[in-house]
Amino acid sequence: MIVIFGIKENLNPIKAQLSDVIHSCMESVLSIPEDKRAHRFVPMNKEDFYYPGGRSDAYTVIEINMMIGRKIEIQKNLIKLLFKEIENKLAIPPVDIEIIIKEQAPYQWGFRGMTGDEVNDLKYKINV
Q1: Domain locations in the chain?
Q2: What is the pTM of this model?
């Protein structure tokens, strides 16, 4: 599950393209299948979205929620590829992107009527 926050005037026009870029990076680094896209966009009013100095109104926060198990280098590769591809495809510089990876134990995930530690038919690896 990925949640993307930004100022609505800047985020709304690029949602589809940003989703494509994010998922492409997830496929490349984590081998997430094409049909496992789970993105939630939270366009915000400017007066409700405070961000650090030195950033523009294009400032965007990307929270990536995943089951624990990916190695540090894999996670770092994902972050670096996201910075690169977002800048290349959407012209948003890395200073305007914040990426947070939040890991939870598989038993803390619930989907398809079971918890993540009960699932045995995922088409991608968690422990990589």
Answers
A1: 2-47+56-118
A2: 0.89
Partners of residue 98 on adjacent β-strands: 61
Q: Which residues fall within 8 angstroms of residue 88, CB to CB, at 6 or more apart? A: none
Q: Is the dihedral of CA 54, 17, 44, 29 positive or negative?
A: negative
What's the half-sphere exposure (Cβ side, CA atoms, 13 Å) at 90?
Answer: 26
pLDDT in tens, 19-33: 999 999 999 999 999
Which homologous superfamily does the CATH classification assign to the domain defined by 2-47+56-118? Macrophage Migration Inhibitory Factor (3.30.429.10)
- Can you give 98-127 as a three-state secondary structure string? EEEEEEECHHHCEECCEEHHHCCCCCCCCC
